[in-house]
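Hey L., structure's done. Input below.
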Amino acid sequence: MIVTQHPVLVTQPPVLVTQPVAHTVNVQGQAQWSSHMMDCFQDTEICVCGFFCLPLLQCKVASDFGECFCVPMLPGALMALRTGIRERHHIEGTVFDDFVSLWCCNHCTTCQMARELRHQKNRGTAVTVVTTTQPVAVIHR
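Output:
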């Protein structure tokens, strides 16, 4: 007896291969603080609050930055807040600069941080994120 086999057609669903999504952040270089550390009289409300009630201003800075208002009561928290403000708004400087500023004149530095947050809020700054994707390849087997 002769057995003949007929070709068998097997189909498989296509395999989809996707590429990871790339995120590009467009930043316009390093910015400067909107006011100098010694420009206390640029905003008299902040200046008076910083001079007569520094802990209150420090708590307001923390709150305006999006942290719990009592964060400044923790050791080193003001330096972390200043560094965070610099990094979020792409302001030029280093952690050492932040330390020296707060060490030399805590009042003036806190006032500068408050003025910067007010300036950024009034400006309505945001970082532009552009999302790009690679084409999807379909592989048939």
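The CA atoms of residues 55 and 78 lie 11 Å apart. The two ends are 35 Å apart (CA to CA).

-- N.
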